[in-house]
Amino acid sequence: MVSHGLVLDLVERVGTVARHGTVSVPLGEGDPEELAATVAAWCARSGNELVEVRGSRAVVRRGRSPDPLAELAPDLVPGTRLWMYTNFDCNLACDYCCVRSSPQSARRALGLDRVRRLATEALAAGVSELILTGGEPFLLPDIDELVTVCTAELPTTLLTNGMLFRGRRLEALRQMDRTQLALQISLDSATPEQHDGHRGRGSWERAVAGIRTAHDEGFRVRVAATLPYEQTHELAAFHTFLDSLGIAREDQVIRALAHRGAADNGIELTLESLIPEVTVTADGVYWHPVSADHDDQLVTRDIFPLQDAITEVRRRFTEQRAQATAAAQWFPCA
Amino acid sequence: MSKPLIVGAVAYTPNVVTIWEGIRDYFAGSASEMDFVLFSNYGRQVDSLIDGTIDLAWNTNLAWVRTVAQTDGACRALAMRDTDTVFRTVFVARTGSNLGGLDGLKGRRLALGSKDSAQAAILPVHFLDRNGPGADEVELLRIDSDVGKHGDTGRSELDALRAVLDERADAAAIGINTWEAIGREELMPGAFEAFWESPTYSHCNFTALPRVPEERTGPWLERLLAMDWDNPEHRPILEMEGLRRWVSPKLDGYASLVEAVKEQGISARW
Question: Is B178 within 8 Å of chain A by CB?
Answer without folding.
Answer: yes
